[in-house]
């Protein structure tokens, strides 16, 4: 499924929990794990002092990646490591591009503490900009399980949702997991008159068509079982989270938009909310830049 997995790490407890999950995936699929530490030389204190400070950062990075490689070898997982200087998020993306990485795995929080939201973090920037799927996990790891037995793919029929569906189907097939397809109809714009009832019926029919197409695609790929669910409510995010809780979902696969145009900003989207709040791993699949441009 994934032959080259990139795991950027700062040595935090959250990163350690995420690495356990990385090793589970790599051991099951004979993947090579790339352990990367980025010495953040862009911070003011480092820029002013350089020299010895950079040396200290790199030595600490060597220790962090060395410990991770040792853990990988204990699991008989092939691992390589590197310490680089630079801006963390762009260095991670450059590494992924240059090493033909298939998957990036990151915790939602690092050294800055659990009390901070994902907003503005390295993880958020990688999720927004990486060309490959990014798997994010909460640092506590309480709801992280492997192998995946139930995979959820929310879909609205958009191009980026279809890309997420393709990846979700591949994972369900590789893991022999059940695939859950979910379409959520938002009711915030609907009133209480007859026209609203007609509009809701139309939206439900559209959602059903989308789900039937997605289920057919999954069935053709050999995935079984596949379930289809339509939910209606004021919040897509809340509906997805409720489904996760109610069906013991192990992984949710969602799409993000491409880099071009106003929709390049993930801020405020359902995907960003899920990455921030989901108790289970979230795999984000970004719409390719070329396809986003073709639609404009």
UniProtKB/TrEMBL annotation:
One Pfam family recorded for the sequence: Usp
Domain UspA: 1-135, 148-286
Signal peptide coordinates: none
Domain of life per record: Archaea
UniProt family annotation: Belongs to the universal stress protein A family.
Protein name: Universal stress protein
Originating species: Natrinema salsiterrestre
């Amino acid at each position: 499924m994934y032959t080259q997995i990139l795991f950027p790490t700062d040595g935090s407890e959250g990163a350690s929990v995420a690495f356990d999950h990385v090793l589970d995936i790599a051991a099951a699929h004979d993947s090579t794990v790339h352990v990367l530490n980025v010495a953040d030389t862009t911070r003011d204190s480092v820029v002013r002092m350089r020299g010895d400070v950079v040396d200290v950062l790199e030595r600490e990075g060597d220790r962090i990646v060395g410990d991770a490689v040792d853990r990988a070898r204990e699991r008989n997982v092939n691992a390589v490591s590197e310490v680089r200087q630079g801006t963390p998020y762009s260095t991670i993306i450059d590494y992924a591009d240059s090493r033909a990485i298939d998957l990036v795995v990151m915790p939602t929080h690092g050294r800055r503490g659990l009390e901070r939201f994902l907003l503005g973090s390295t993880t958020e920037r990688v999720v927004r900009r990486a060309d490959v799927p990014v798997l994010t996990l909460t640092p506590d790891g309480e709801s992280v399980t492997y192998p995946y037995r139930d995979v959820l793919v929310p879909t609205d029929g958009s191009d980026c949702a279809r890309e997420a569906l393709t990846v979700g189907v591949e994972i369900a097939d590789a893991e022999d997991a059940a695939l859950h397809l979910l379409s959520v109809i938002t009711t915030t714009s609907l009133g209480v008159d007859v026209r609203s009832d007609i509009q809701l019926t139309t939206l439900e029919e559209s959602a059903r068509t989308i789900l039937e197409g997605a289920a057919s695609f999954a069935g053709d790929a050999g995935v079984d079982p596949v379930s289809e669910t339509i939910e209606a409510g004021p919040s897509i995010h809340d509906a997805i989270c409720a489904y996760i809780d109610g069906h013991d979902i192990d992984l949710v696969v969602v799409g993000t938009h491409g880099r071009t145009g106003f929709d390049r900003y993930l801020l405020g989207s359902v995907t960003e909310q899920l990455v921030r709040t989901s108790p289970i791993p979230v795999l984000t699949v970004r719409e390719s830049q070329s396809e986003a441009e073709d639609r404009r």
